Amino acid sequence: MRVALTLIVVETAIMLVIPALPDGFHAATAQNFWLLPALDAIVLVLLASPIIYFWAVRPFVLERGRNEELLRIQNTRFEEAQRVGNIGSWELDLIRDELKWTPEAYRIFEITPEEFRGTQDFFLNAIHPDDLEGVRAAYTQSLETRQPYISTHRIFAKGGRVKWLEERCSTEFDAKGNPVKSMGTVQDITERMAVETAKNQFISLISHELKTPLTSIKGSLDLITAGATGRVPDKAKNLIDIARRNGDRLMSLVNDLLDLEQLESGQMLFNMCQTDLTTLISEAVESCQGYADGYEVSIIAPAVGHPVYVHGDHGRLMQVMANLISNAVKFSNKGGKVVVSLVIDEPNVRVLVQDQGQGIPEKAKNTIFDRFTQADTSDTRQKTGSGLGLNITKSIVEKHGGTIGFESQIGVGTAFYFDLELETAGAEPALATA
């Protein structure tokens, strides 16, 4: 109503003003009939503009302001979360070679945005020289396989101080399959690596300090049992047998800890050469038979009839077989069977160790290869062991370029297997590697 009244007043004012205008204006309007409608339109726009603003423009402006404030809050929370977690993120435009970091990434690398040149080479120059090739290789493999990757490496911070970082990366590709953008996160794990190093050094020290006296104790007990000190009374013999069994368990734990420390430090040597798996399995079954007899479990290894060669370390693969067979025996039911077999599927061969035990509970399957874990279907752990055997076994198999896994069914049993690449007969042996 107000708008209508306003328009009527304006129109009346125009009609009153027009007669007082000069004759030239009337002549112009007579010749150009659009002047008066145009003047009316201008007046209407001027009058309607506040209405248009409050009805259409202002709500849009307010909504945009609220969205911008919400985005600012979200960015602030995201940056705070990165700061608390000590995790930065980055984005690399592979077409323009433009690298962008979040504020936490600047803090991790200990540089300012003014010092940052924003290129991939700038990041690579910060990496420790001993880790540079590994980072390049991981990134190249990620581009080739189109799979994300995780890389642990060192960088030089201010003052030449070395920091450990964990990088995670994934890459986007265009319709033609060309990489166009990589993005990922970077986390400072210096403190975690320091704790891991201290722990490994402690384990190594304790293991070495324990192994020497344990070897002496075990040897002395063996001599006493063998009668080197004369006839052993029956009561004393029972106590000595208990001591020997517990000494064997403790020695096994020490050996597992030493193997774990060597694997983590890269000091475990592998004498890679042509190895016959059929011979290896026969030796492993023979060495584990006495252990299986104690559990009243039989070990069966169907004959293959011909050599099956792989490229590996005979001693370390024997360790893998002993771990898998003894584990299968330990979790088998009394009177059960453990079957060790080969399945050839060129270019690979699979070694299977199958038991007739209770199977692995669903809740334990995801952690079966973790350290200090052991599957047990009961609420109380009944089987002895360090919980390191499968973790060490997995590491050794992977050092051979193989993979390991298992299939299990509750009440039926479990089959552990590992796959290695077949090797043709007559291949040249390789030097020992770490």
Summarize the structure.
With 434 residues, the protein is an alpha+beta fold. It contains eleven helices and 14 strands. Strands 2-1-5-4-3 form a five-stranded antiparallel sheet, sandwiched between helices. It has a five-stranded mixed sheet with strand order 8-10-11-13-12, covered by helices on one side. Strands 6-14 form a two-stranded antiparallel sheet.
Q: Can you describe this structure?
A:
The structure is a single chain. By secondary structure, the protein is an alpha+beta fold. The chain folds into 4 domains: about 1-70; about 85-190, 2-Layer Sandwich (Beta-Lactamase); about 195-265, Helix Hairpins, CATH 1.10.287; about 270-434, Heat Shock Protein 90 (2-Layer Sandwich), CATH 3.30.565. Helix content is about 50%, strand content about 20%. The protein has helices at about 1-15, 25-30, 35-85, 105-110, 120-125, 130-145, 190-225, 235-265, 275-295, 315-330, 390-400; strands at about 85-95, 100, 150-155, 160-175, 180-190, 270, 275, 300, 310, 335-345, 350-355, 405-410, 415-420, 430-434. Strands 2-1-5-4-3 form a 5-stranded antiparallel sheet, sandwiched between helices. Helix 7 (about 190-225) runs antiparallel to helix 8 (about 235-265), helix 8 packs across helix 11 and helix 10 (about 315-330) runs antiparallel to helix 11 (about 390-400). It is elongated. The relative contact order is 0.06. The model is unreliable at about 375-380 and about 425-434 (pLDDT under 50).
